[in-house]
Design a protein that fits this description.
single chain; 297 residues; alpha/beta; 8-stranded parallel beta barrel; 8 strands; 48% helix; globular
Length: 297
């Protein structure tokens, strides 16, 4: 499966009792589709998957597939630090009709590089759904090496990587290594760092899985589409237009600022589940200024 364009790492909205706001989630889905994005990710890490129980996790994926109804690609967050649990969530997502699954590297365990290949290979072998590996070492303690990405690309069913190491050099190395193996057209690299989307795509990436697109999906989609159409003049303009708001959205741990921004914009988001909590006042003021400067509030 080819992954290209703008995918939104959706938040999970909660009501005042911190239960899933199902109607709010459906509303956000329709809002983002209207913004022109290409795909939506439900129950990923931006969706506070770490504090969803299994029933809630599955429910978010069910709602996503049901409400999208084929209008854009649906990607289910199904990663876990237990391979057996990742298999179970990925099988469920395939059964309910998700188009793909996004699997973060097992966190805390710090599996060896050959263990990562076994992990993703096991999920791919047992689940009939395209898989995106998610590399975010700042959150998991594990970094997928360039050579490991190439081996993952050789596994039937592992079709892309969301790369959030923060290194454009690494993306360059991945793309070159894939090219040497003739895999660059069959395996996609998606930016996992919103502010680096332009440079990552310039060296071989095909799109982004974006948290900031929850509030600014239209401009992110316009920028990504401009790059895909080789209109770098317009892409540069949009990159610099969005830079300050993107930085403000990561001033504290994701998804705290983006949910805060959504609440300020009147979009369904609600509170956080512990251990996350409200922003510090000085950071909230920075976020508010960035939102005002971007004409979002």
């Amino acid at each position: 499966m080819r992954f290209e364009g703008t995918y939104v790492a959706m938040v999970t909205p909660f009501d005042e009792n911190k239960n899933i706001d199902e109607e709010g989630f459906r509303s956000n889905i329709n809002y983002l589709i209207d913004q022109g994005v290409d795909g939506l990710v439900g129950a990923g890490t931006t969706g506070e998957s770490a504090t969803l129980n299994h029933e809630e996790h599955q429910r978010v994926i069910e709602i996503l597939v049901d409400e999208v109804d084929g209008r854009v690609q649906t990607v289910a967050g199904t990663g876990s630090n237990a391979t057996s649990e990742a298999v179970a969530l990925t099988k469920f997502s395939a059964d309910v009709g998700a188009d793909a699954a996004l699997l973060i590297t097992p966190y805390y365990n710090k599996p060896q590089q050959h263990a990562l290949i076994d992990h993703y290979g096991t999920v791919a072998a047992e689940c009939d759904i395209p898989i995106i590996a998610y590399n975010v070492p700042s959150r998991t303690g594990t970094d997928i090496a360039v050579e490991t990405v190439v081996e993952l690309a050789k596994i039937d069913g592992v079709d892309a990587v969301k790369e959030a190491s923060g290194s454009v050099d690494k993306v360059s190395d991945i793309y070159r290594a894939l090219s040497l193996e003739g895999l660059e057209d069959d395996f996609n690299i998606l930016s996992g760092e919103d502010s680096l989307t332009l440079p990552i795509m310039a060296v071989g990436g095909t799109g982004v899985i974006s948290a900031s697109a929850n509030i600014d999906g239209k401009r992110m989609a316009l920028m990504v589409n401009s790059i895909l159409n080789d209109d770098y003049t317009r892409a540069f303009e949009l990159h610099y237009e969005m830079l300050d708001i993107i930085r403000a959205l990561f001033i504290e741990s994701n998804p705290v600022p983006v949910k805060t921004a959504m609440n300020l914009m009147g979009l369904p988001a609600g509170p956080f589940r512990q251990p996350l909590c409200e922003m510090k006042e000085e950071n909230l003021e920075i976020l508010k200024k960035a939102l005002k400067d971007s004409d979002l509030i």
